[in-house]
Tf2-1-like SH3-like domain-containing protein
Amino acid sequence: MSIRRSYRPYQIIVMNPKASTFTLDLPPHTNIHPTFHISQLRIWKNNNDAEYPDCAFAKPGAILTKDSFKHIVDRILDE
């Protein structure tokens, strides 16, 4: 399994300026070597939803529970 290019920002855990390499904190399921040359990396830029509306993430809807309480999801936290 590979990871899609520019899928999300990954944290840099090791920098080696002499060799121009960076080791990223990749998910374990990616099964690829986590060290990359700087020429293979790009700076992460958040999407401009006004300029590129087709790339915007869908907002989560309301969650209904058995107690009939309505919960609105404000944000999703990623570890």
